[in-house]
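Students often ask why we bother encoding 3D structure as a string. The short answer is that it lets us treat folding as translation between two languages. Here is a chain of 482 residues written in the first language.
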Amino acid sequence: MEDIRMELKPERVFYYFEEISKIPRASGNTKAVSDYCKDFAEKHGLKVRQDAWNNVMISKDASAGREKEKGIIIQGHLDMVAEKTSDSTHDFSRDGLELMTEGGFLMAKDTTLGADDGIAVAIGLAILEDETLSHPHLEVIFTTDEETGMDGAKNIDLSDVTGSYVLNLDSEDEGIMTAGCSGGAKIHTDLKVQREQKTGPASELCVTGLRGGHSGVEIDKGRGNANVLMSRILRDAAEKAPIFIVSVDGGKKDNAIPRECLSEIIVEADKAEAVKAAVEEAVNEIREEFASSDADFNVTTELSDGCSVKAVTKEDSAKAVALIQSLPNGIMRMSQDIDNLVETSLNLGIISLDESGICLRFALRSSVGVALKNLKNQIACVSKTYGGSVEFTGEYPAWEYKKDSKLRDDMVNIFEQMYGKKPTIEAIHAGVECGILAGKIEDLDCISMGPDIFNIHTTEEHLSISSAKRMYEYILNVIACK
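And here it is in the second language, the structure alphabet:
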């Protein structure tokens, strides 16, 4: 990495990005990176508090003469989405990331980069160590498990936090400032199934080549969902002959649009050719339908004769496919108040078959509370109709757009002075932690922003090096002038 760091500026920001990239920090595995931040604070003589959720809060006294100004909170999350290519041997529980650069971008070999939200951690630490910066009282808050339900933010104690302004660094488009976001929830739908010993030709189907992406940011792109498309293929196959599901496994994160899904089915010997033809026809139809959004969509098929395995019964296989096909997925409603903003959506991010049955995992989002409630009720109604059980977890509130915001006005003016143009102010169809923080601190004024990061939550994630430099310089100016 030493050769790479020569081309990375600001040097201290990327120094800390490299340091935290050496530490495994997938959601649910944040103790080590939390300890690193705590140790950093102690080494620099800063006040620090670490809680049982591995959240870290670091504070730095105001510069001389700025003690009476309202304090600034810099906030981001420690965890990252852990995705890797199908042929990667990377172990997110113990391996650091292998960073590399290409064409002005920073990326990781065969894995997600974790710039969402490692760049916030790196910027926060670089600012805290800078003794040349004039600043009001600073508080840097690093939360955990943001990617899996914002549990860190939900459970953090902010009773001793004094700042009034929040710079949340969990956005990925330079020049676009987020001033509102959707709320959301997670839904677990489980369908118990019966199994029987079944003998016959087996067909292993593998959906690959889809673009995937963030279930909030990219939900409006019309990209194919591997889990939904697999259920569609199985539906069409079952119309020609009974199928018996042996396995199904698709997606790794409920908040990522799944790119791959693998399923194995058993069919009756005299129906194998009919099922094969039905699968091929379904694949061709999907390829035509998604030619623009997912040009590399592909389905591979491996056939085996004379298999004898435990498989889901014909009736329950049909019921499982019908359930998935009946449940909604994707955009449910566009905002009536903000142009081109998705109001309500859901994503079938994970599907699996285990001893308990077929398991479906959804991420729901909406900027309207009653719409989220209605969608939850709709999924519960459909699931129960097919005999499934439903569990709701991880609900978090929407962050409502403030009509009057001094922070927003000041940041717009500073941006215009630096770059000769106004930034875009928007609300987004994705969850950021500002809504939770604002619910804990009265009259909190928040803005979310960040450098250009592309293909987040995928193995193609890459960070613009020049954009990160500009964003850091901009944040320094905001702090110096606030």
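Translate back mentally: The chain has a mean pLDDT of 95. Keep this in mind for the problem set.
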